From TrEMBL:
One of its GO terms (biological process) is sodium ion transport. Residues 22-89 form the COMM domain. Belongs to the COMM domain-containing protein 3 family. It comes from the Eukaryota. It comes from Daphnia pulex. This is COMM domain-containing protein 3.
Length: 91
């Protein structure tokens, strides 16, 4: 998989240079959306997530919203990425 996407991965990593931003904190809250002006009743959970990143002593805020299933997908993707890094580190 790496070899087929190697050029794309390298191009993205070049944007960050030798040291990508470091995740230093996470803030989140859970809201329950009852209805909207345009769609009426929706009744769903929405997670508001703020990632605080530090890059060369400067802090940046990365904010996004996600549904429960989107957040589960993100967690699973991060777990897969961690496992991939562990496998590569053992080579």
């Amino acid at each position: 998989m790496f070899s087929t996407n190697q050029s794309k991965i390298q191009a993205i990593l070049k944007l960050y240079g030798p040291s990508p931003p470091k995740l230093v904190d996470v803030n989140w809250r859970l809201d329950y959306q009852v209805e909207t002006n345009t769609r009426g009743p929706v009744q769903k959970l929405i997670y508001f997530i703020d990632l605080i990143l530090e890059d060369k002593g400067r802090r940046e805020l990365l904010s996004f919203t996600a549904s429960h299933s989107e957040l589960e997908d993100l967690v699973n993707t991060l777990k897969d990425a961690c496992q991939s890094v562990k496998r590569v580190a053992l080579l």
